Amino acid sequence: MLKAFLTMAKMFTYITEHLYIYLQFIILLFLLGFNYKNQHIRL
Q1: Using CA atoms, how far apart are residues 15 and 20, in angstroms rounded to an integer?
Q2: How far apart are CA 25 and CA 18, in angstroms?
Q3: Is the dihedral angle over the CA atoms 33, 34, 40, 43 positive or is it negative?
Q4: 6-34 per-position pLDDT tens digit
Q5: In terms of Cα–Cα distance, which of 34, 31, 28 is closest to 42?
Q6: Beta-carbon count within 10 A of 17 CB
Q7: Residue 35: pLDDT band by 50, 70, 90 thresholds?
Q8: Which site in 19, 21, 26, 34 is 20 to 30 Å from 43, CA atoms measured?
């Protein structure tokens, strides 16, 4: 029981860490796209 719980916790932390990196990447792309669009409108 404890072993299964530890494995689940390990997997959970692994997934959340990677989701965090993935989210940062998406936010970065979104901001870049937003800035590009704004520059386009200004031109």
Answers
A1: 9
A2: 11
A3: negative
A4: 999 999 999 999 999 999 999 999 999 88
A5: 34
A6: 10
A7: confident
A8: 26
